[in-house]
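Chapter review: from sequence to fold.
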Amino acid sequence: MTTYTHGHAEAVLRSHRWRTAANSAGHLLPHLREGQRLLDVGSGTGTITADLTRAVGESGEVVALEVTEEAAALTRAELERQGIGWARAVVGDVHALDLDALGGPFDVVHAHQVLQHVADPVGALREMLRVTRPGGLVAARDSDYGRFAWHPAPAGLDRWLELYTAAARANGGEPDAGRRLLAWAHAAGADDVEAGSSTWCFATPEDRAWWAGLWADRITSTALASQLLAEGRASEAELAEVADAWRAWAADPDGWFSVLHGEILVRA
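The token string follows.
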């Protein structure tokens, strides 16, 4: 496995808990049915997992997979908070899925913002396909940092992207995963692949303040900040300047930010 660039600081969890199936798995939702078995790889804070679990109903089954007990506990806490008792969270490695421990093959395997962080995304997709029933579906969605767009364009945001990309690649990840999903699926042996894209857009004063506040905190007080300082990629003063650039962008009434995601649906 790679080192997880974001870590699990409050600013990161605040971002991840905003995610829902509606805003993060819209490409998959039309294909979900009552009674399906679903594996949610990299379930994290569990908000998407909870929505997917409701979509397959109590006659279905959802297994959430995380790489550490700490992360799996986050999923369990959210499922409990929402009163969802027919899903379970387990610890495992997407590069080597234990089909017996997972309870057998799945109708749907889902991963959101996962393949950009794993050591071998092609191998991970191959494993996801292996545990999917014939005719079942593998769904993945990943950001493409190199195609994020914003206006106005303060130099500090360019520096933010440069620093984040360097840190992610140093950890063994691929921050431009979105554009590579189709190629990775083909390399994993898939031939029935539907590829597309979607965006998040932050342009209202409230959305700008929320998005910029997340990244101002993440660049100064999370695992990302610690890594950048430890590797000598930036000083504390420079990270503070980047955070200020985020806040200045958010305060501009013309501020607009678009986050591009690649998406794939793969028939097993």
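Two observations follow directly from the output. The chain has a mean pLDDT of 97. The first strand starts at residue 37 and ends at 41.
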